[in-house]
Specification:
two-stranded antiparallel ribbon, 4 helices, 7 strands
Length: about 100
């Protein structure tokens, strides 16, 4: 259910949850998640997996999402979960990129 672009990048197709969490668990240095919609469940699971690996200080997590006001008002982005991730993982960034179309929820 994934398409390998190269050894370090995987594109996930639906249903993606198991493949996504497996991919998160393999992150050693860097994890990039790009999605226009991100709910709390996958973000909490990312935190849990990285905490379980005792890698909070060694894995850099970058979230690229659509932080447009209408996305926030519709609830398609869980801003509290993004904030919790940023507070839980010191080496994390959240980046706004508009016009994204593929959801993670």
């Amino acid at each position: 259910m994934s398409t390998a672009v190269d050894a370090s990048v995987k594109l996930l197709e639906s249903p993606w949850a198991t493949a996504f969490y497996d991919l998160v668990s393999t992150a050693e240095k860097e994890l990039l998640v790009a999605s226009p919609f991100i709910s709390s469940k996958p973000l909490e699971k990312v935190i849990e997996i990285i905490e379980d690996k005792q890698a909070l200080d060694s894995v850099y997590v970058s979230i690229v999402t659509n932080l447009a006001v209408d996305s926030l008002l519709r609830g398609s982005i869980d801003i509290a979960a993004l904030l919790h991730l940023a507070q839980s993982i010191p080496n994390s960034t959240i980046t706004y990129l508009g016009l994204m179309l593929v959801p993670v929820d």
